[in-house]
Amino acid sequence: MDLRYTAEEVAFREEMRTFFREKIPADIRRKGAEGHHATPEEMIQCQRIMNQHGLATPNWPVEWGGKDWSPMQRYIYTEEILAHDVPAPLPFNVHMVGPVIAFFGTEAQKKHFLPRIANIDDWWCQGFSEPGAGSDLANLKTRAVRDGDHYIINGQKTWTTLAQVADWCFVLARTNPEAAKPQQGISFILVDMKSPGITVRPIQLVDGGHEVNEVFFDDVRVPVENLVGEENRGWDCAKFLLANERSGIARVGTSKARLRRIRELARTVQLNGGTMWDSEQFRHKVAAVEIELKALEMTQLRVIANERARGGMPDPASSILKIKGSEIQQRTSELTLELAGPFALPFRDPEEELPEGTNDFTLGFGWADAAAPTYFNNRKVTIYGGSNEIQRNIIAKLVLGF
Ligand SMILES: Cc1cc2nc3c(=O)[nH]c(=O)nc-3n(C[C@H](O)[C@H](O)[C@H](O)COP(=O)(O)OP(=O)(O)OC[C@H]3O[C@@H](n4cnc5c(N)ncnc54)[C@H](O)[C@@H]3O)c2cc1C
User: Fold this and answer.
1) Which helix (H) or strand (E) holds 309?
2) Which of 148, 282, 298, 351 has the most CB atoms at less than 10 Å from its CB?
3) Residue 99 falls inside a structural domain
4) How many domains does the chain contain in total?
């Protein structure tokens, strides 16, 4: 198996690099590098720039604005987005509801929604998980009952990311509670978040942010034309969507960018009359993560090569990428936390005069402030997108054959 990049792939990487460096505002990228979340407005701004250049939805069918790229080109594109700290196109729009509508939707749904999804004229959120239905998603209880040309939806979703800014939600709801298997009675329905009967309640996170929510549906009326695919066949859409959700899951680019920055910052953080980079122990820790990341990158390239050999079919070995990629992400957040030390929490007054000889973070002040919130926030990466325990079950069954 040849894992080297071809000359065309090297040129493609350069093209992507140049685009992201030149077109995406530097202040937004710098904020990302320092570990701060982009605001919804900044995310919309960046996705619209990419959309104007045909680079927001390369994973879509070509007729709806996608690119006829090889898996390797898609990988390079994703890695360059992450490596340049560009806010990635909104996954709920681009990797989730967009492909589902493009594949299962009616012509009217495609024409109306897809251009708006690509440009984030509508911000979407994912209404799948419920209390008691996360890993075991088919156990979901939210009901959609047909009433003439409407569904009436009742139930509760949870962990709904950025529902507070969303215009629309794609909801899995049970339309046939009598079906022989729980997966068979579920439908995939598009719900306008402005509909009467929807309540969004924030879940406060340990990093201090407001990222996820509980969403309650009380007699919410949704036109039947908002059903995607066939009634009671929503599980097909869900499986298709979850397979798409895995794209770029190893986040090699994010970890590479973080390690680069850790090396730079370590040379600025004072320790025992020198810097953190003088500490052999710290350098060893960084090297250990770098070695694991290199191995992950090689595994990623092997998975891509396998998928190419399987005619584009997802390789179950990508579960290995999810596990290893998320663990490495957590370790880079731990190294940044160690570097920031007592400055890792955003408590200190930026105007405060520091005693001579102590670390002056005025240049990189933002990064230190973000270290603890990022560390706490990154606990999530081993849970969402299918928890790492569930990924191990997949490996046991589909890769090892147990
Ligand atoms: C930050 C964040 C954002 C999210 N955003 C969204 C969103 O926008 N929309 C949405 O629909 N959902 C979202 N989720 C939900 C996410 O998909 C679920 O948290 C995830 O699927 C796990 O489900 P759960 O939380 O119910 O945990 P559970 O399924 O109850 O699992 C609890 C623990 O048991 C383990 N476990 C469960 N079953 C097994 C098994 N069979 N074998 C071994 N171990 C098992 C799990 O790995 C986990 O450690 C988000 C979650 C987080 C943390």
Assistant:
1) helix 280-309
2) 282
3) no
4) 3
Q: Which residue has the tokens 């933002």?
A: 366
What separation in Å is there between the alpha carbon of 128 and the centre of ligand 1?
Answer: 11
Ligand 1 atom at shortest distance from the alpha carbon of 129? 11
* pLDDT tens profile 326-354: 999 999 999 999 999 888 876 555 566 65
Q: Residue 276 corresponds to which tokens in the numbers above?
A: 């953190």
Judge if the beta carbon of residue 160 lies within 6 A of ligand 1.
Answer: yes
pLDDT band, very low/low/confident/very high, at 361 (cuts 50, 70, 90): very low
Q: Where are the alpha helices (DSSP H) in 34-141?
A: 40-52, 71-83, 91, 98-104, 107-118
**Same domain for 394 and 250?**
yes
The residues with which 198 forms a beta bridge, in sequence order, are 217
**Does 102 reside within a domain?**
no
- Residue 383 CA, ligand 1 centroid: distance in Å: 6
Residue closest via CA to ligand 1's atom 44 equals 389
- Do 288 and 214 belong to one domain? no
Q: How confident is the model at residue 90 (pLDDT cuts 50, 70, 90)?
A: very high
Tell me which of 79, 80, 130, 245 is the catalytic residue.
245
Q: Which residues contact 198 (CB under 8 A, 6 or more apart)?
A: 191, 215, 216, 217, 218, 220
CA of 132 to the centre of ligand 1 (A): 10
Strand 168-174 versus strand 124-127 pairing type: parallel
Atom 35 of ligand 1 has which residue's CA nearest to it?
Answer: 389
- Do the domain assignments include residue 105? no
Provide the residue range defining the domain that includes 155. 124-233
> In whole angstroms, what separates CA 107 from the centre of its chain?
28
Condensed to tens digits (0 to 9), the pLDDT of residues 245-298 reads: 665 678 888 899 999 999 999 999 988 899 999 999 999 999 999 999 999 999
User: From the CB of residue 351, how many other CB atoms can be counted at a distance below 10 Å?
Assistant: 5
Is the separation of the CB atoms in 342 and 361 below 8 Å? no
CB 200 within 8 A of CB 213: yes
The CATH number covering residue 219 comes to: 2.40.110.10
Q: Distance between CA atoms of 262 and 274, rounded to whole angstroms? A: 16
Q: Compute the distance between CA of residue 45 and CA of residue 43 in angstroms, rounded to an integer.
A: 5
